[in-house]
């Protein structure tokens, strides 16, 4: 069987829901459908989730939320209208929303989670009603009854291990199960949401729990591109990539699927198919455990801005047992996570995401490194970009680095840093942010554009 | 003024001492001369220091050391004979040696240090006697009287900070000061030797303490070569290199000057000139703080075998604050020093010198990483070589990596690892040991052999 997840833009209008129905009923294996809240119908539209957050804010500030409530209800009503559904389901959504708004606000984070979750929860009810109206056996699934138990961390809930066994019994239900994404229930019965992209997480958990053959993730692109389309026009689509490749690409800015969302499917070895609701016959991109790599060494190039490096030098550093550990210990004291630590003989750089530090913390960190580790020199470089060149095929490919560095040299990009050799599926270049775009374009040219003689 | 140090081969015979005298008296600035013990006269010869170690071993095993004593005395006597010196100095050396042999053996390490140090100490007396016999004002300096105070670590003494001020008064002495290398005295008045190449250390300490303008280090090569002559025939000589370049090259197998020996001169910013006793008119190699880099980006290529890597992978590793520190903490518990830690998103490799671990320690380390850090995978790669491509000029040189990696690809060398970007003066490649020689040759061809059209 297949777990199928539809994103917000796939559920934004009645027209979109018709496509969803066609897709689901076209394959008898599609038994569990995870739904997001209705998303944007056009660029300036507001997602239901964002309306709900504004609604919660109004309530917490003792403002009358009725405008926001009306706006939310209007979205569901528009869909129901378009699909000629009876008023019953809209009344149900209306009552549910008022019940939530009237509930306890003493813990604001939890109240926000309760309202946010209604977007998916009510959309699942609507989708189930529509399927049934079309003569398809479909059931709304209450995550509480189904047993999706989560930790009590507002906005960042984690599935509890016992969820997997409980959710497995969904396999025994008849018809199509419509499961709301994005949230679960704590052991004490309260609603907690996952982090953003939380419906992807729900789908991944269900795919694992139900031992699905495939996890289909429907969104609004035909496939994952090999490079950011805002940097390179009409880039090549990726047909198949491995979890590891996806994770390396996600790290540096690929946002089609949130990398943490993949973990449950990854652990169970279930392939993930990213497909387009608006073009379901396109094969999409398949994320698998292993793949043939007959298409050259590189599958994708990703890049991300906003890094800085702390350079530390000390004569005879490499003779000093414990230096590296102490250095990382200082960062840990400030809760800073670091990305990489390229090192020479007497020097080491620590690469971090810049948004973790303000000037004050940076000064403290530098002073502690100078004073406690007796470094000869500590200096900081800002505004770095990291570029990941990713592909399982580069593992045993002599000359990939030569091609990549030649392309960068030709584009007059100075390589600030290279990290290669730990991951077998990627190499990483650090460049100045101003060089990022030029560097990515040069690498794409080198690895993806066929040479015309 | 200049501090001048002569190595063992420069002092192995009367003929060599004549050269030393000529060199020292040819420049009035050469006021302090540091001497090693007599070295080898020919390939199969035994160094006096090695004879003294055998002598100490005999004494500690209650064997009669007279043969070894005779062999040591015979070396000094041969030099004295060749130079027509009076018997007085040989009698003095004989008496000194017997006094040392008769001394306390309850601490064997200290006894060995006491005997080893006599090689330099007595040679300084001999050299001073020869200089005087030639009408040159020269004085043997007793390191105890001069104030070269060291820590009480046998075979690994470190100069105490107060030494520097005390030794400075040597500047006020008239004539040429002949200073024995390799040892100093502890606060309690006992002899302790430096690590191997200890006479280089003595010279470096004196250059610092006396604020010398230059530290000349006379040995038996015309210059430091840009690459190991056993890998590339007749490689280019290096005219000038910086401390940092020297240190990076030393790290990976360049042995002309021991890198730790440079520290005191480095701290005082004193240039070091490596010269050839047998060809003193050759300019040699000058080690400086800064240099022009007009000769291309690369100054030298060094390589060293005997490394291994421990590869650790864990999904979502980079979200886990403290992972790196804990990993390095495990290594520290076993007293293991590591060289580099190239990292990907979900994986990190630790590169270590293989001779630190036996199979048992490796198994324990791997088990602790698996169990305490919950790693998904831990694996070990043996028999790696590290190649350092070194040069101040590569700091801002676009395309150096492209040239290097192209050369390696052409030579069909797979790059296991690259570490670049922390040190501004080097890039490091990890390759399999079997590829080492081919890789170094290819890099040398690329950077040093002029293209002939």
TrEMBL record, chains A, B:
Cellular component aspect of the GO annotation: cytosol
Annotated positions binding substrate: 49, 120
PROSITE patterns: ACT, ASPARTOKINASE
All residue ranges annotated as the ACT domain in the record: 389-453
Catalytic activity: L-aspartate + ATP = 4-phospho-L-aspartate + ADP
Record-level GO BP terms: diaminopimelate biosynthetic process; homoserine biosynthetic process; lysine biosynthetic process via diaminopimelate; threonine biosynthetic process
Keywords tagged on the record: Amino-acid biosynthesis, ATP-binding, Diaminopimelate biosynthesis, Kinase, Lysine biosynthesis, Nucleotide-binding, Transferase
GO MF annotations in UniProt: aspartate kinase activity; ATP binding
EC numbers, comma separated: 2.7.2.4
InterPro entries assigned: AceGlu_kinase-like_sf (IPR036393), ACT-like_dom_sf (IPR045865), ACT_Aspartokinase (IPR054352), ACT_dom (IPR002912), AKIII_YclM_N (IPR035804), Asp/Glu/Uridylate_kinase (IPR001048), Asp_kin_monofn (IPR005260), Asp_kinase (IPR001341)
Primary role: Catalyzes the phosphorylation of the beta-carboxyl group of aspartic acid with ATP to yield 4-phospho-L-aspartate, which is involved in the branched biosynthetic pathway leading to the biosynthesis of amino acids threonine, isoleucine and methionine.
Family matches, as NCBIfam families: asp_kinases, PRK09034.1
Record's protein name: Aspartokinase
Source organism per UniProt: Neobacillus bataviensis
């Amino acid at each position: 069987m297949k777990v199928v997840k539809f994103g917000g833009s796939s559920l934004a209008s009645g027209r979109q829901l018709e496509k969803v129905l066609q897709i689901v009923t076209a394959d008898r294996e599609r038994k569990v459908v995870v739904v997001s809240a209705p998303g944007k119908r056009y660029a300036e539209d507001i997602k239901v989730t964002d309306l709900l957050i504004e609604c919660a804010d109004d309530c917490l500030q003792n403002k009358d939320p009725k405008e926001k409530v009306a706006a939310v209800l209007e979205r569901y009503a528009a869909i129901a209208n378009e699909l000629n559904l009876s008023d019953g389901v809209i009344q149900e959504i209306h009552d549910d929303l008022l019940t939530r708004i009237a509930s306890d606000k003493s813990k604001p984070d939890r109240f926000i989670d309760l309202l946010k979750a209604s977007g998916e929860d009510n959309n699942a009810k609507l989708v189930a009603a529509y399927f049934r109206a079309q003569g398809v056996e479909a059931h709304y699934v209450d995550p509480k009854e189904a047993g999706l138990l989560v930790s009590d961390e507002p906005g960042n809930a984690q599935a509890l291990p016992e969820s997997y066994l409980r959710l497995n019994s969904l396999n025994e239900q008849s018809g199509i199960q419509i499961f709301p994404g994005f949230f679960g229930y704590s052991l004490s019965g309260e609603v907690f949401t996952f982090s953003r992209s939380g419906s992807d997480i729900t789908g991944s958990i269900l795919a694992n729990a139900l031992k699905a053959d495939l996890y289909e993730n429907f969104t609004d692109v035909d496939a994952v591109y090999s490079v950011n389309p805002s940097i390179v026009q009409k880039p090549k689509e990726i047909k198949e990539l491995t979890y590891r490749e996806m994770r390396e690409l996600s790290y540096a800015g690929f946002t089609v699927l949130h990398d943490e969302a993949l973990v449950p499917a990854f652990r169970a070895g279930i392939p993930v198919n990213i497909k387009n609701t608006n073009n379901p016959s396109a094969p999409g991109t398949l994320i698998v455990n292993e793949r043939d790599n007959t298409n050259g060494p590189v599958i994708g190039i990703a890049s991300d801005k906003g890094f800085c490096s702390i350079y530390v030098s000390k004569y005879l550093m490499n003779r000093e047992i414990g230096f590296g550990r102490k250095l990382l210990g200082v960062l840990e004291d400030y809760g800073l996570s670091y990305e990489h630590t390229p090192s020479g003989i007497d020097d080491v750089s620590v690469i971090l995401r810049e948004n973790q530090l303000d000037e004050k913390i940076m000064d403290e960190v530098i002073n502690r490194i100078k004073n406690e580790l007796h470094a000869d020199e500590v200096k900081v470089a800002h505004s770095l970009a990291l570029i990941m060149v990713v592909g399982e095929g580069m593992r045993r490919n002599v000359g990939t680095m030569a091609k990549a560095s030649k392309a960068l040299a030709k584009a007059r990009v100075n390589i600030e840093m290279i990290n290669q050799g730990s991951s077998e599926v990627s190499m990483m270049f650090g460049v100045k942010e101003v060089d990022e775009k030029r560097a990515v374009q040069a690498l794409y040219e080198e690895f993806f554009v066929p040479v015309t003689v």
